[in-house]
């Protein structure tokens, strides 16, 4: 059942019937939880519903038989100040379940859209649903089991419950302004909720509307719905996923790069410090105007990313920027969605984060080395574009640099590093192995540049055979784009 | 130098001298950082000083040669609302560096004490210093290198800088109310700062006052002080630590436990539900009055902790409690101080967290199995008492249950588990190995109960041969103590 209209609110359940049905269920849920854990399936259970639909009691019954080490309950309120400094979906992403775990959301990403929707902000309404559809598709494609439950009660029942609670000092706080507001506008909310259910019902993330006028019936139906979804997930794996829609690029954007570009040391020295000082000033203005900046550095091994970054940040205040060196995922980074760690590492509004390697690892090293399946990296181009669109819609400046050198230049640098006592640690066998796969990386890079260069988050190729040119170019672009964004803000 | 009085503010440094001195320093700091990393030494650098002492510039110069993957800068402001819901030191604990990493605090745990101190809250002042001394001793004992720097400028220099910044729109925001207030009351602050330096200077955490009127001189002295401290830490390991002061207990508190205590099923059934419902009510009142509750369950294997906890939480709202199953530390839990993960897992004010095993692992399994050195577990009794004192000083209720069974009862339960298809997964070879060390665990438990039972956080022995008695007793204690605390609040 996925509409309010179709829900039969008269349904009840007798005490004995309830007890008989529930008894084997507790054992069953424990067994299923262990099976989901062993299968490494992450599960997100969303509990939505009317104010007064007794989500708390349903929740308490649901978790009774579960091993507490395997689930976590997230009560979602309005965004706190700290949370408002990030793109809206971040607070959900960082709470997503890792493999084998269950995250239970009491209210969820639907909270905001329902409240905004009701308040009549039509544009956010549409955008909000789209963000939710993107999130749920990405999660389902990533193997997350989504169970979405809506507890439905009538206006009369809501009224009865509010009155009862108001009389008890331990529970009176539950009935506040937003509860009263919903009750007054029950019919409008009803319309908004039906709309929400219709807009966000999908085969990979179906809604289940559960009549909740009668306590025992509601508790039983929720437990039963969860158990059924657990079983289906265990049987149907792997379930059907969205079509990746990948098309390789025809002409590599790298072909046009002019690696002969270079600057004289004197000109470099003259331009460098003023650019760095300008960026320092802009950093302060970003802080003042709460403009978040995300910078990505990708490039060949030994392309000079590290030195380039060091020049970029030289005059900046370390309290406002952070360089994030991205390596192979470890621990919880492996058992979560590949974008999870990047959502966590986003800058607060007003700060600047520089990613030394990034989420593009999915379509570079993971593609070339086979760490991601073909389906996974095919899908990643769209997922990454959607991710970055959420950053720029939030107002972030997104800069992406591919630091480019020729194969010959790389060889010369590898050899020089091996001879320099202080740089030997920077060159490893892995660098040599990567070099052997130059052509594969070339193809992957070409696809990446072509398929993820968008209007709001374009790639810039930084010609790096001459390091001085590369440093100035990166600085110039940063100063220009951040400056422009500040003027528009 | 560890007083303001002794600092010579006239010191300067010529451009050439600066350049000559700094040049080899960058290489040296890079080498030292790698050596600290390889030695697994965690470092906390505290940057304190007057408003206008240009901490940002000093910081920018200090981090220039460092590998950004190895350090993190934490700008410490006044506690945010979310942070105010936890004991005051938590926001620092969760930011402490793990082994081989550097955490740089721009303002630190001194911020609050200075500001409170100046505002004349004498009691917090003294308590605040004591909390700091405890923190720094615990960290130093745990192997953390502490570098504490204070940048000193005169009132006249502060005035000059504020005037200059106020003219530039990118920097004017730096001079706000608290800056102006400090300037107006420079002499009072001077007295408070000298006092702070005297109160918190220690061999394992020495203060370094650095004259900061002249930019180059200050930058050089800070870089030099950090490099010198790095070198000393690498040479002197292991450095001298505080005396553990451990005395084994003479009479085991377990001797007095009456394991024959039991209740009839009928009496159990009659009492259980009302107790659970009362606890549910109390939970709501805790939320209303923002009372945090910390519960610890320790006990023999198969003592029935899990089942006891399940009965305790049965009627409670899962949005307000959390059961934390504590296992062997993994990942960052290993490379951080052993108390670090428990500081992270503390409940927000108004919530209840139940630890199924806890920080007492330090003096139980880690002691018996030799995972902690003798010096470490000897020291742990005091460290744990200090930790819990910070919880109760913040107003938390701390309940600690030792669920006790006889050796014969344990054997009977192990055997029963092996025969039950649904419980076989609960019994492992490790349980049998632990059982062989019964006497060692008995000694460790006896010490624990005797040495960490304090007035504010006492241990309760829950006689567990009869599970029904154990469940009722735990519930009764929880209801009584939480109820009392609510009345006092």
Key descriptive features of the protein:
51% helix; Rossmann fold; five-stranded parallel β-sheet; 489 residues; homodimer; 19 helices; alpha/beta
Tell me which oligomeric state these chains represent.
Answer: homodimer
Large-scale geometry of chain A:
elongated
| Name given to the CATH homologous superfamily of the largest domain in chain A | P-loop containing nucleotide triphosphate hydrolases
CATH fold node name of the largest domain in chain A: Rossmann fold
Return Rg of chain A in Å: 27 Å
Number of domains of chain A: 2
Known CATH architecture of the largest domain in chain A = 3-Layer(aba) Sandwich
Helix percent band of chain A: 40-55%
Proportion in β-strands of chain A: 5-15%
Question: Number of helical runs of chain A?
Answer: 19
Distance between the termini of chain A: 46 Å
CATH first level of the largest domain in chain A: Alpha Beta
Characterization of this structure:
The structure is a homodimer of 489-residue chains. Chain A folds into 2 domains: 15-236, Rossmann fold; 253-488, 3-Layer(aba) Sandwich (Rossmann fold). In chain A, 39% of the residues are buried. Chain A contains 19 helices and 10 strands. Chain A has helices at 15-39, 55-63, 90-93, 109-118, 122-141, 155-166, 177-184, 186-200, 215-236, 265-289, 305-313, 332-335, 340-344, 365-369, 374-393, 407-419, 429-436, 438-451, 467-488; strands at residues 43-49, 71-75, 102-106, 145-152, 207-211, 293-299, 321-325, 352-356, 397-404, 459-463. With 489 residues, chain A is of the alpha/beta class. In chain A, helix 2 packs across helix 9 and helix 4 crosses helix 8. The radius of gyration of chain A is 27 Å and the shape is elongated. Chain A has a 5-stranded parallel beta sheet with strand order 2-3-1-4-5, with helices on both faces. In chain A, strands 7-8-6-9-10 form a 5-stranded parallel beta sheet, with helices on both faces. At the A-B interface, helix 1, helix 2, strand 2, helix 10 and strand 7 of A face helix 1, helix 2, strand 2, helix 10 and strand 7 of B.
